[in-house]
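U., I forgot to send this yesterday:
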Amino acid sequence: RVSRAHLTGFAIEQDFPELLLSASPGLRVARIVCDPRLRGRGWGSEAMRQLIVWLERSSGCAAADVEANSSQPSVPLPFLALGSTAEDGGSPSWLGASFGLTSQLLRFWSRLGFAPAVLSPMPNPQTGELSVVMLRALANAGEALNELIPSLGPTFGLRFLRRLRSTVAGGHAVPPTPLAVELLKVSFGVTGDTGAGLPWCPDETDLSRLERLAGSQDPVHDMAHASDLLSVLSEAYFSGALAPLRLSKPDADLLLAAGCRSLSASAAAADVGLKSANLAALGVKRIAGEAAKHVGRCLGKEFLLTARTLGEPAVEADVGGRTGALRAWLQPLHCRRAADPADPSADERLVELAGAPGCRSGGPEEGLEASGEPSVTEQPPALPVPELRERVAAVWSYPLEAEVGELSARIHGSAGWHMELHCFHRWHRQEWRLPRRGPSAADDVCREVFVSLVGSPPDPDDVEVMLSFWDPVVSNLAHDHCWGCTSLPPLKAISAGRRLLRLPLRPPPGASSPQAPAAAAARWVELSAIWAFPPPGPSPPRGRGLLTLASFRVCGADLPSSGLRCELCVLHAVSSVTAESAPRPSEGDGVDLKMRVRLKQNRPEQGRR
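Result:
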């Protein structure tokens, strides 16, 4: 049983029973005294640094190290002889400090390498401050102590987060929110352990709620309904699971108040010094947006990967200027964060490239039919069929800098590949209902979509038009549960006159159900389309073309009884990267691509073509 007279050992062993600190000799700094005229000039820090160096000399530090590790000339400490002992007669292996928690003292001790380990449950009745115990291992500490003491900070941080949540139900006392944020940063930052190896992996429902909050039109209301999500998000952020995401101090304070402390918008505003609940809710919306981008949502971007084996002739795909016998839209990036692109073994983060062209293996083939003429199905030229089991791993990292992330992609396989990765910006979105009529969902309304050509010079090849079809009861926030999707042929291909198109529907890139590909193979859409640039009229808008769609008819064996909701999305190519690798015999080899993605970029890079 530890005596209460051994303050540090007793306090540590109450919260960490696995650590018998009192069995190892150590010292506790009771007080640092400095002339008031010299305070704030670093004399106290220098005194502590010299004390630490002096104590560690007993484990082999030379006298020259004292001056090398101090900004001031070393001054002999006559009251501590070499080999100074703790109360049991051994050389000290740890150094501790306990004090009333203030921002200034917390910074002072953390800069000296001390980790917080214990926080008193109730404030001191005389000072009104919570007491904190901080610890640092010395050079004489054994292997076990050197492993245990650095781990106290992150463990303390996780316990402190749980303690913050328990205060909602009347638990222990906690410091003010700004001071609590500083304590958490010190807890998880002393050892450099940011938790980056354990990324936050929310489930699909939490991802949808996060995206909804990030785009909320009524943030006060949505913030109240997302209090449990904010609590999880707060713990993930402060434990380092969202690294390298770093919020500003006001935003970090607000996240802790609204998350771990579960305060309402008005209470959180008062807690962090904002003028109104609306400002607090808007701040939470901004935080949700940054977190959503970190996990791959709310990016406003889509990524297309095309690939062909070296020596294989380039084939024009159904996106102008982008060629390849194999092509695939990458899965939603929130599925990609935890991946290691060099490891091909984790199937849940890999996508298979589909065969040529247009990622439309199975189901009806695409046809272009001139109005009033027999249908003619375009057949691709004969190609050597590569192994279609090659898989692609992709990893998303955000942020690298302000509004910039990086997408890393690798195609695994032994053959050499030529790969192109294209980034598209979602420029325009439009949706409408397709009521069910017998065995199909159909709509005879003529729909006109103005498409801006933002490149210089304007080029329709920079544009991709995607169609997604949804069960009306499924929100488009459920990205992986689309009924079927497809993309239109190049706009130039439908500019000569009205064309009747029959396009097979593929499952969404992130569909995880094994039945999804087979079900989507029996679904297709028929429509008429025509592209005009410039659009007809006496004064056509500059840099804009007109896409006219009509005679929609969607067919499928499992068509929803209430029809479908059609979503049209106009994408603009903004950047691309390419890579090649020579054929290598090693099965683990492949092609690597890295693309820096600027989220605010919505126009093609100059000189991209």
